[in-house]
Amino acid sequence: MRQVGTLPTEPEARRFAAWLVSQRIEAHAEQEQSGWVVWVRDEDQLPAAREALAHFREHPNDPKYQDAQRSAEAVQREEESRRKQAQGNVVEMRGRWGTAVGMAGVRKKAPLTKLLIGVCVLMALLCYEDMINEGQSGQPPSQLYLKLTFVDRHAAVDPNGQLNVWASILHGQIWRLVTPIFIHYGLMHLAFNVFALYSFGSLIEDRRGSRFLFLLVLALAVLSNAGQALEASFRNVIPNFGGMSGVVYGLFGYVFIKARFDNKEQYFLSPGTAFLAMLWFTLCILRDIPPFNGLLEGAIPPIANSAHAVGLLAGAAIGYLPLLVRKPA
Q1: Is the N-terminal amide bond of 291 cis, ω within 30° of 0?
Q2: Same domain, 49 and 165
Q3: In a domain, 201, yes or no
Q4: HSE-up (13 A, CA, CB side) for residue 204
Q5: Torsion region of 275: left, alpha or beta (phi above 0 gives left; psi -120 to 50 gives alpha)
Q6: Is the model's pTM score more than 0.85?
Q7: What is the enclosing helix (H) or strand (E) of 31?
Q8: pLDDT, tens digit, for every residue of 25-53?
Q9: Peptide bond preceding 271 in cis form (omega within 30 of 0)
Q10: What would the pLDDT profile of 96-135 be if each residue is shown by its tens digit?
Q11: Cβ neighbours around 264 below 10 Å, total
Q12: Domain encompassing residue 62
């Protein structure tokens, strides 16, 4: 969503937003501290909306604005009818790339999402023996791979034999709070996370922009990695984990909350997609709990469940917190 500008009163803001809708510009009005703010969804329509706002401020009683509400309602009914018809048809893929089943279509423009995918693939190629081949060649781990892990295994144990999973972080290597998200063990691990990252990441980037997605991914990476490291500390083992899945579950949690409780940004998440995500989340947890572990260990590799859980809860919280302070329009 992009802010067009503010108007002093609710009737004016609603009338102008309705006029924009009647002109096929998706818009709505919302009360904030600075007054009544008018938002548009499509950044490409922002210049036209701002030009229209300048005219509206000078001529608020222009006859063309007087019947805006009725015209807007007609446009919304038409759009709703079109959406319902589209949902009953085969998903239109023209002009889309990598749109997940059950997800709203996203634009091709998702530069940060594609950059993150590129980094994941590049790290997998550069650290092929450590990641894709999972160290089966018997060669010592590469220096790049060791730099990506949460803690330097040589620094994790002090001379007295005490484990400190935070040793590298405390020595100023703060990049390790993030870089484990670029470690993937095996092609399936990489492929699943890349697909899920594009599905949820590009959807959020389309609606909120690259800067917001960057900050969201950064927060989810730090929180999910720290959560997994904390679990390893409790179990007194060196944290040996990696993957984008903590971030991915955070993005899923964010989209789920927005689709369920906040239609401002018009997210859509099908029940089937949500069910599959939570089914996998549950199976991964049961894999480590008797008596299910005997059935699932052979089918599911070791999973960083704490990273999944922390990422999911953090993403959901980030999505829901604005609803606690926002004044409804």
Answers
A1: yes
A2: no
A3: yes
A4: 31
A5: alpha
A6: no
A7: strand 27-32
A8: 888 888 887 788 888 888 888 888 889 88
A9: no
A10: 444 444 454 445 579 999 999 999 999 999 999 999 987 7
A11: 16
A12: 2-87
